[in-house]
Amino acid sequence: MPGKQYNSEVEYRRRVIDEELDELMVGLAAVALEGPRGVGKTATASRRADSLFELDDPNQREVLAADPAQIDAIEGTVLIDEWQRHPPIWDYVRRRVDAGAAPGRFLLTGSSAPAENPAHSGAGRIVRLRMRPLCLAERGLADPTVSLGRLLSGERPAVAGSTEVGISAYVEEILASGFPDIRRLSGRLRRAQLDSYLARVVERDFPDQGLRVRRPDALRAWLAAYAAATATTASYNTLLDAATPGETEKPSKPTSIAYRDVLSQLWLLDPVPGWLPGRGHLRRLTQAPKHHLADPALAAHLLGVDAGALLHGQAAGPDIPRDGSLLGALFESLVTLSVRVYAQANEASVHHLRTRDGDHEVDLIVQRRDQRAVAFEVKLAATAGPADVRHLLWLREQLGDDLLDAAVVTTGTHAYRRPDGIAVIPAALLGV
Asked: What's this model's pTM, rounded to 2 decimal places?
């Protein structure tokens, strides 16, 4: 029923975003959690809610649409789950914020951008937070010993720690998924759930966003091409060609753009934008994004690869040019997911760097508000040799003090600093 009490006794593993919510809700009247379906938004938000409206329930949606003012009679924090199912509620909350709603009054969750946009964006009234699948620190593989926040401080902190987590464990984490309910499963059960997740995207989520898919196989092929392009900057024309090899009748460019736009609205695409530093240090940088799905498990499943195929470097999926192996790309995607969670907690943004001639590229640039940054290279290796730090050393020469720190993220066992000052950090040891 609308306004029902939430059962807070359900077992819950605390997420990095909990710290952000704790801080924001003390002073803000309305916060919206956004991210793909199944990422854990409702479980996280419900722990702070005194009452809950579930708008994916048609009955609750109808009741709230008929009389949104009933919210005013409810005390405490009100959670409006899947608000995009009734977009006018966004404007209702915005008006209540304008009228002086108390801090912590409203929480909203959304698994997609609404097909029908609210009349007002809510900017300045409703603060939006992106929630991603479980990062490595949330999965409990190891206790992180290296803090991204400390690296961003510019202190050049000592880097130390060790872990038993190795490449086989990272492969399992790629396949296991960061969606809480999926990663609890294994083997055929997990594969069935991933199949179901993707089938729902095509059969239900796309129509809900106003786009009925006439050729589901074409959309699935485009998704597989995007998965094969993980951690690359392949053009969308390249993706379309890879999805339809040998076919003369390809989906039109507007159709493929519509695929991309709807998948973005569903928070299933999470590309890393190209970095354009604002201080004039660098010129001729590409703006093309690096492609990443919300969860590398979705990419692996779309490509039909298991642990053996990844570890043995077997080719899979559409033919997309890439440097290195598919496992290397999916490991980078897993690290990127984690770094984005840590960066958001530190109010930093994440980018990648690539010069237009391709002479230099850096996998991840984490930038503070003042545009100073930390750079990361991600390597599917246990150690970091001269070739692995070459681009980081070049970037340090270009940026000087504006490069706060630099590190190579590896599959190794020990965290340390090289004599040249570059940190070497096993992925499992990096945290907030």
From this structure: 0.94
